[in-house]
Amino acid sequence: APHAEILEAAREELAKKGYNLKIVEYTDYVQPNLALEAGDLDANYFQHLPYLEQFNQERGTKLVSAGKIHYEPFGIYAGKTASLDELADGAKVAVPNDATNEARALQLLAAQGLITLKDGVGLNATKVDITSNPKNYEIVEMEAALLPTVLDDVAVAVINGNYAMEAGFSVGKDALATEDASSEAAQTYANVLVVKEGRENDPAIQALYAALTGDKVKDYINSTYDGAVVPIF
């Protein structure tokens, strides 16, 4: 989930164009790309572009994106403080401590006007790139998976969508703020449909992408995942 489920939602639309969709599920992030490179699959759908580009570089594969489908937004969740407007001077704000996720968290805080980041730092942002912190928030870094467990000890926490869901939060209802679809993070870390280089314009691939980005799948995503999965088309 959610990828196999979203593909299943696209099956009927794809069938209307004469294609029978066979969904093969994997439990790791390596085999789907190796199987695609070997020609055992026509496409895969599980990863974002930064991962794909790193995989190609490390493995010598020639895989490309055929288009963006969805992203899984970070959210700010209430701990001791119920709203962003109520954050006190010196409040503790918890963020993930790994490089990619911390940058996304800081960008979300900046988008809400809580801090300002150095111009152009983008998704390489770290604490040292905070140029303005008017209320002197204490940015507390910790392992992403632990963030839902520390809400009693911090004012708010910025939590990955999957960890928020696992902790029982509704991303759509409980998050005080989430990444916007137009944000650099959402666009960069959108999950994409991936094919071997040169197959991007194959009729079957184009039909699959059209089915995945149609109204039926959009409605399915919006009604199923409670804001934890957001269409980016």
Secondary-structure blueprint of this entry?
Elements: H1 3-15, H2 31-37, E1 44-48, H3 49-59, E2 63-71, E3 75-78, E4 92-96, H4 99-111, E5 116-117, E6 130-132, E7 138-142, E8 156-159, H5 161-166, H6 171-174, E9 177-178, H7 184-188, E10 191-196, H8 203-212, H9 215-224, E11 230-231
Parallel strand pairs: 4-7, 4-8
Antiparallel strand pairs: 1-10, 2-10, 2-11, 3-8, 3-9, 5-6
Q: How large a portion of the residues is in β-strands, by DSSP E? A: 15-25%
How many helices?
A: 9
For the report, how would you describe the main beta sheet? 5 strands, mixed
Q: What is the 3D form?
A: elongated
Helical residues, percent: 25-40%
Number of strands: 11
Radius of gyration: 19 Å
Question: Whole-number average pLDDT?
Answer: 97
Order of helices and strands: HHEHEEEHEEEEHHEHEHHE
Return residue spans where pLDDT drops below 50 for at least 5 consecutive residues. none
Distance between the termini: 19 Å
**If strands are numbered along the chain, what order do they take across the biggest sheet?**
7-4-8-3-9
Helix- and strand-based class? alpha+beta
Characteristics:
five-stranded mixed sheet; elongated; alpha+beta; single chain; four-stranded antiparallel sheet; 233 residues; 11 strands
Q: How does this model look, in words?
A:
The protein is an alpha+beta fold and 233 residues long. Helix content is 34%, strand content 20%. The protein is built from 9 helices and 11 strands. It has helices spanning 3-15, 31-37, 49-59, 99-111, 161-166, 171-174, 184-188, 203-212, 215-224; strands at 44-48, 63-71, 75-78, 92-96, 116-117, 130-132, 138-142, 156-159, 177-178, 191-196, 230-231. Strands 7-4-8-3-9 form a 5-stranded mixed beta sheet. Strands 1-10-2-11 form a 4-stranded antiparallel beta sheet, sandwiched between helices. A two-stranded antiparallel ribbon has the order 5-6. It is elongated. The model has no long low-confidence stretch (mean pLDDT 97).
